[in-house]
Amino acid sequence: MDPAQWLADYRDRLERAAHGARQARESLQQAGVTARSPRGEVTVSVNAAGVLEGVGLTPMARKFEADALAALIVTTAREAQRLAAAQMAEIMAGYLGDNAALTQITQHLPAEVVR
């Protein structure tokens, strides 16, 4: 193969990889989910990393005892984190494909999240 052509092909591959990485980064920055408790008393928002960004309570939440409300918030937060993990895994699968790198990233996610 002509060295100049090889170098041009290599640069193209690098540019495609950089473009894909930028797209994945942008998708992850915009990712995040909000989960709602079964009857809607609690909403919890998390970012793509599962970091808590907000908690909302409706007037219906006032009917709960403190311990029950706290448990409902935690359960709803866990659901939001599970959904965020699934979203993150999907974004990264689109970028990385199904390979060892994706396995490394998703190995600690709940089984139902990983494809």
Walk me through the topology.
Elements: H1 3-30, E1 32-36, E2 42-47, E3 52-57, H2 66-96, H3 100-106
Antiparallel strand pairs: 1-2, 2-3
Main pleated sheet: 3 strands, antiparallel
Helix and strand composition category: alpha+beta
- Helix tally equals 3
Strands, total number: 3
Arithmetic mean of pLDDT: 86
Overall shape? elongated
Helical fraction equals: 55-70%
- What value does the Rg take, in angstroms? 20 Å
Order of strands across the main sheet: 1-2-3
List unreliable stretches of 5+ residues.
none
Strand content: 5-15%
Order of helices and strands: HEEEHH
Alpha-carbon distance between the two ends: 39 Å
Briefly say what this structure is:
With 115 residues, the chain is α+β, with helices and mostly antiparallel strands. Helices cover 57% and strands 15% of the residues.
Describe this protein with a few key phrases.
single chain; 115 residues; alpha+beta; 3-stranded antiparallel beta sheet; 57% helix; elongated
Would you give an account of this structure?
With 115 residues, this protein is α+β, with helices and mostly antiparallel strands. The protein has helices at residues 3-30, 66-96, 100-106; strands spanning 32-36, 42-47, 52-57. Strands 1-2-3 form a three-stranded antiparallel β-sheet. Strand 2 (42-47) and strand 3 form a beta hairpin. The relative contact order is 0.13. The model has no long low-confidence stretch (mean pLDDT 86).
